[in-house]
Design a protein that fits this description.
The complex is a heterodimer of chains A (about 180) and B (about 300).
Chain A lengths: L1 H26 L17 H24 L7 H6 L2 H17 L1 E5 L6 E6 L6 E9 L3 E5 L13 E11 L2 E12 L3
Antiparallel strand pairs in A: 1-4, 2-3, 3-5, 5-6
Chain B lengths: L1 H19 L8 H4 L32 E2 L5 E2 L5 E2 L2 E2 L2 E3 L5 E4 L4 H6 L8 E8 L9 E9 L7 H10 L16 E2 L3 E3 L10 E7 L2 E15 L5 E4 L20 E3 L12 E15 L2 E16 L1 E2 L1 H5 L1
The chains are: A alpha+beta (about 180), B alpha+beta (about 300).
Amino acid sequence: MLTRRLVVGLVAASLTLSAGCSSHQSGGTPAPAPVTSSASPGLGPRAAAEREALAAYTGMWQAMAKAGEVPDPDAAELRQYAADRALARIVSVLVTYRETGVVTRGGPVTNPRVTGATPADAPTEVTVADCGDSTNWTKHKKATGELIEDDPRGRRSITAVVKSFDGSWKVVSFDVGDIGSC
Amino acid sequence: MLKLARVAVAVLVAGAVLLVAPTPVYADPFGDTRCDKNPGAPGCEVTAGNTGTTGGSNAGKGGGGRGGDGKCRNPSGEEILCQRDGAWAGADGCYYRPIDPSPSTVQALGGQPAGEGGWYQRTCYGADGAATTGLGGPVWIAGVPPVVSPEVLARQARARLTLPKVEIAMNPPGDQLVNLPVWLALDRASWRAQSATASVPGVSVTATARPVRVSWSMGDGTTRVCDGPGTVWRPGTDPAKASPDCGHVYRRSSAGTPGGTYTVTATVTWEVVWAGAGQSGTVPGLTTSGQVQTRVQESQAVIG
């Protein structure tokens, strides 16, 4: 019985995901805004947790892309979706962009899926796997806007840990693989 | 001799190439977040949390740095440029430039470590010059600066400045009245230039902070900026007379606020200049602030 409910939840979650995917592929645009909470009634705690975790993961990369246009290491949106080591890494990169006169344009295309959730019935920690694509996420010299050519881009395998902080989901760590790793 | 000269030329050429394309780049933004080439960076330590120090404490140590001959070397003993893109060579062969991350950035990087030290932007270059062995990044270097330059010493001197507490002298003393001028002033001890010195053998730099303005947030939604500490009201002065240089008039009683008082905050902005080793310059400014609570009453209540 419980298993069946879980399966239904997972199918619902993966349907949401594939909807997100197809919009990426057709438009080539950054991922859509995170699903609003009003969509959650009817979902079990596990499905809701997975959905929030995926939204935080997507939100984090989109917030990094947005902050990279300035670049603004103090962007509030980053802190909404990332904490701990994940936030430290992204802020560190944005500080470096600012100090070295780099801005980013565009954004990554992400397509995350849940690989684990604990505790299983009402998760507070969700692990996510993704194949992130940086093809349309470019680096430029801030002064001139010139594209920084020496900038290999492509698909990278990414795993992340997303945690609930009193119901607010944030990515706490992630690992990025080599270009071509997925 | 000839060989040394050739090496020097090669170094200079490498430097010239860098001036054309100084931006250290080796990855897309995803790749820039990776730790494998940047193990000491904030968020890369295995035990990283929201406490403790960020990496890089060994950054200034190693066999390299500026030797007694005035030349800079990397840990393998090869001569490198002493200065690159506004940063100075450290003993690890990487380059360091002092930075001033905001409180929110510092928080995200793991918090402000205790004790003396400084935040630096670290950049490491690869053997081929233009490429880098790591993106580098902001690091906290505890203790002695990783590099010696008057500018870096100036940051250190600035960190040693002890600025006076902001003592507010709002007058007339006691409760204020609606529609009656308030004289805004700071105790003179809050408005005095302060100096501090940092030195290494042979170089000494003094940083001096001077108060330049004070911003008064009055608690009633208004802010007044004054270029000086203000004039202290003296008994015997006509209470209806406004301060000659820094004053405010409350138009609403504080009765409706939580606690029945307004919180007055005075924030002093300090400019910091430095001088030493035959050079001088400015470093980012500092602020100090103080608060008082004040009750503002309707004047007719007193008269009636």
